[in-house]
Amino acid sequence: MAHGIPRPVEDADSRPFWEGCREGVLRIQRCASCGRHVFYPRLLCPHCFSDQLSWVEASGAGRIHTYTVVHRAFGPFQADVPYVVALVDLDEGVRMMTRILGDRSSVRIGARVRVEFVEADEGLVLPYFRVMDEATAS
Amino acid sequence: MRRDRLAAIVGVAESELGETPHRTVLQLQAQAAKAALAEAGLEKGDVDALFCAGNWAWSTNLMLAEYLGITPRYTDTTNIGGSSFEAHVGHAVAGIQAGLFDVALICYGSTQRSQRLRGHVPPDAPLTEQFERPFGLPTPVGAYALAAMRHMHEYGTTSEQLAEIAVATRKWATLNDKAFMREPITIEDVLNSRLICEPLHLLDCCLVTDGGGAVVVVSERVAQRCRTRPVWVLGHGETHTHHTIANMPDLTTTGAAVSGRRAMEMAGVRHDEIDVVEIYDSFTITVLLTLEALGFCKPGEGGPFVSGQRTAPGGPFPMNTNGGGLSYCHPGMYGIFLLIEAVRQLRGECGSRQVPDARLALVHGTGGVLSSTATVILGRD
What we know:
heterodimer; A: about 140 residues; mainly beta; CATH 2.40.50.840; five-stranded mixed beta barrel; 1 helix; about 40% strand; globular; B: about 375 residues; alpha/beta; Peroxisomal Thiolase, Chain A, domain 1; two-stranded antiparallel ribbon; about 35% helix
């Protein structure tokens, strides 16, 4: 566990998301007006400007859209190098930044991944992802 | 073909560059502002509009105007990162066209190198940054690495092709005695430099320097009485598409597709008419994505386009002729230096790095994490 990771300032938009992480649930928003999923959470739907957003539980499955292997890091992250930071497209159609756990050789663009909640710092649970086994990936 | 003289750039200057521990960020801007006004034959009292961007004060314009002793009747602190100054030119042109002012002073300065401002990890991640900062992506380099990896995946772009840009840019720097890094490098040097964020190596990344610059934009009426040969602003465009990299609509297409088209349409110029381009090169991938989005080549063809040192001195596509942010200087927000070099090229002042008979220039800034773009088309009589 690293120490000194920048702390999310939980706020009126984000609190249910971070509470979900601590409970082991990946929460995103869905717009009742246009039907699209929304991440990160906000007051108005960025697609149709409706305020009819509600929280839903995401499947936790997705696909790596792109990634980088970080070799030079600062502060609390220096101890982790090399590590993989990725953008993952959830099956619900939203994109989020995350870390990819596990064997680096499994990391490739397009790989199927599933969320795992990791206590990255004291009291800070982050949604990381791991590449699925070939057998279970779909 | 319509080529309206919207306004003129009549003064450009750099401050001391490189490593300036004996200077403050205000002194650097004062040096540049004085020199830029002086070459135009203008006085401080002629300035009626002030443009500045930076993160060294909560209101850059209030502090800088007071320090310089300027009381503007038009002020603009637009900060969209490194492209701010290309946007400032556009805003200055709009104000001049509207008759709001005649003489605009655009300033920038930074002492980031001497103050070692890079690499600090803040303790908190507020607002929309809370969904990215805790994951440890070094910014901005990590975001550009994510785009580079995606471009390689979609189009087969290689690290060698990205290295071509760094090598060609360094060749230009060898011709500029103000450049910070002037030792020639090879593609192998780039590939053998240490990885920062895959696929980007150290030599794919811009410098971290101190430095300041100033640009003076005036109405056609004022340009007539200036000492310098006017460089006309013929077109401009700007946009921004996202703040956090996860929200970039398409990781291989920048806002240059929008700002570039608008600037070129306003100027009424075609790609093959442009003699010299100054393109923001925070990273090699920034240039490659920008060339594609501006339409100098098709999406995915940026790699072949820059291969064979086509952008180097003597090549068919002179680009980043001062040595760029990769080799000349990069004090955090580099955009003002793109304008300075383009103006000097169009005035024919560039000595051994002069692009012969340069008449039309395209200047393109990129800010944030491929977030903002602003494009300016410049030309001489």
